[in-house]
Sequence to fold (85 residues):
Amino acid sequence: MRTFTFEIILPDAAGRKIETYSVTLYTRAGQITLLAGHADLITLTEKGKITIKTDMGELSLYAESGMLYVSGGNARLLTDTANEV
Fold:
């Protein structure tokens, strides 16, 4: 299965880059799942659980609302907080 880079960018802390198979999170339009090769996208996100699937298993985060940017096969989430659950 192909992977892609998911980057979390926070205003007051070092960001985090994760090689992942999929990322599931909430947008204003509902829940979406990103996979490798996802179409380019810019959308506002809602606060809630983010599920990230990697070689090491599944990682769950809770994030505040923010902005998701998908381009060139990679994704970036700009948010105020993203804490492990």
